[in-house]
Write a structure and sequence with these properties.
By secondary structure, the protein is an alpha/beta fold. The protein is built from 4 helices and 6 strands.
Length: about 190
């Protein structure tokens, strides 16, 4: 019987050692998991921060590209208006912000005024049908922001570095003068509103 008691005691010590070692291993594993979760949270936060920063930089780049294209187009606008519409520009307003009587503020890429008409320009790096539709809305609102030109016909001018042929055709069907930047700024079509 003494041998059985000794064996049971030995078995109890072994089980206790096993439980103690298992508990130690579990705590190590648990602590490792907590550390991994903390590192993953830091990684996730850093990734979100970098993503926000990248989006901001893409936005800044897009804005700079837009103003770069405008800077290429704007100096040629009076020449194009004179050549295509046989009108001399006596006032050219670039990146013009105006407030409407109801308090809304809107920025227009360029407004050219001649003795016989006023021209509104919108310049895009790549022109799309959505841009054309947006410009139709700008044309509709123009006189709200510039009532002093209500007596003059309004000519819409769209300019772009690149556009698909179907977009060009769509813009021309809307009656817009369409400018494409190439070796030289060229134009097609014109209508007034």
């Amino acid at each position: 019987m003494a041998a059985v008691i000794e064996r049971v005691a030995s078995l109890e010590r072994t089980v206790q050692d096993f439980v103690r070692n298992t508990e130690i291993q579990f705590n190590r594993l648990y602590n490792s998991q907590l550390q991994t979760e903390a590192e993953l949270r830091l990684f996730k936060d850093e990734t979100h921060r970098q993503h926000r920063e990248m989006n901001k930089k893409w936005g800044e780049f897009s804005n700079k590209l837009g103003t770069l294209v405008e800077d290429l187009v704007d100096p040629s606008l009076p020449r194009v208006v004179e050549k295509r519409l046989n009108e001399r520009t006596y006032d050219l307003m670039m990146r013009r912000k105006r407030r409407s009587p109801d308090g809304r503020v809107k920025e227009f890429d360029a407004v050219l005024v001649t003795l016989d008409c006023v021209c509104l320009n919108s310049t895009k790096a790549t022109l799309s049908n959505t841009d054309v539709d947006g410009f139709v809305a700008d044309i509709a609102e123009f006189r709200t922001f510039f009532p002093e030109y209500n007596a003059l016909p309004l000519v819409g001018i769209l300019a772009s570095l690149a556009m698909d042929g179907s977009v060009l055709a769509y813009a021309e069907r809307q009656g817009f003068l369409v400018l494409a930047v190439g070796d030289e700024l060229s134009s097609r079509s014109a209508g007034s509103y």
